Amino acid sequence: MSQPSNxxxxxPQFCFNETALRDFxxxxxxxxxxxxxxxxxxxxxxxxxxxDPSSTAERQVHPTRKRxxxxxxxxxxxxxxxxxxxxxxxxxxxxxxxxxLDPNDPDLVLREAESAKDRERVVDERLDPYxxxxxxxxxxxxxxxxxxxxxxxxxxxxxxxxxxLVTERCGDNGTxxxxxxxxxRESNGNK
Length: 191
Hints:
0% strand; elongated; mainly alpha; 191 residues; 7 helices
């Protein structure tokens, strides 16, 4: 069974390093969510009966039934691996969202000085196609906020897909992934 992602050391530098942030999210999602079918198959108890050679007598395009996964194994996977991984990613995204809202951006003074100089320039892109380099660049905090917004959207899509596969294989208790994750957070003291 896969292990939940280790939480990286949360610093503003980690958040502003978009490559490191994206790599962490990609690896975490790849370990748990992208390989959810393999993770669920790993929970299946091996056959109690021996191999039946007649099972290969004819090709089955669609399996007649999937092997059931024991309820305890599903519950353990959800609580110890899936929800833990989701919580770690939520913590990272929430921390970085807070960093993006910090008004003390160290690049702010530099950008304001560049902006004052650039406002005095007359720019005609027809005459100078490279004049775009003089347009003020986006603030690091704005760039980070856009990245966090996009990653939260991706996270919602991935969690919905993962949860649909988990409920298909483990049984549906009628709750969505948000409700199930919130219950787990309450039972573990996470908010």
